[in-house]
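Incident log, entry 3
Record: Drug/metabolite transporter (DMT)-like permease (296 residues)
Problem: checksum mismatch between cached and fresh output.
Input:
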Amino acid sequence: MTRVQANLLLLLAAAIWGGGFVAQSTAMKAIGPFWFIGLRFAVATLAVLPFVLFEARKAKEKTSARHAKLYILIGLALFGGAATQQVGLQTTTVTNSSFITGLYVVFVPVIAVFFLRRAPHWIIWPGALMAVTGIYLLSGGHLSALTPGDLLTVVCAVFWAVQITLAGTTVSETGRPLALSATQFAVTAVCALAVAAAVEPVSLSAIRAAAPEILYVGIFSSGVAFVLQVIGQRYTTPSQAAIFLSSEALFGASLAALLLGETMPVTGYAGCALMFIAMLVVELVPGLTRRRLPAA
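Fresh output:
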């Protein structure tokens, strides 16, 4: 596969994820957030299983007990991110959610300091400042304008950052990204369904009404897009992959405007632009500075 083909796969994955934000929002007209999360990840688990079995046949080592515990921990982080994002969508827009969720690109290197004891690149600090300023502008220039859903989505971005950090180190040890994916999907499904059964009503008619969204997000946003991401990242650079995957925020905002009629003030678009720039610089600048270092 050429690098251009790989980047196109990553762009397709980002587009699928962007459409997922719209599906997540519209589904809650019929079903509660935790039932949606539980059913979504149950479908995702089944969608990924065939790939897991194929991967297992080629695996050189079996999953150890330690790795299994890490898989479960990563699944709990995924549940935290999915839950705060989904509940947040009840009081924020798809546009805001898609961009604020993208803050994980800034949070990942910061959290890596605590898990991996690695000092972040200097660009992280101006990148974080730009991201916070972007959220401020997204609120219309008034912090009081930030909704509870916006704040929950910031928490969601932290959970995603934890999940990404732990998943990255774990997969580098096991070489089993699909096994990890299926396990974290299953853990999230079990946790969400347990909460849903305790706090949310549900009916077969509600599930049928939300079925298109559940199937889209479960099969495509979680299953297919994850596989596309894994394949694409094997044939392109991390910096280029970050650019194409971060475009999910733009797809989310564009589809929200096209399908849901969402609009923002000019300051909101400026905030989105600043947040997107922050996402890109924290990925691009470290790679560029390494290239410019003289050979030893």
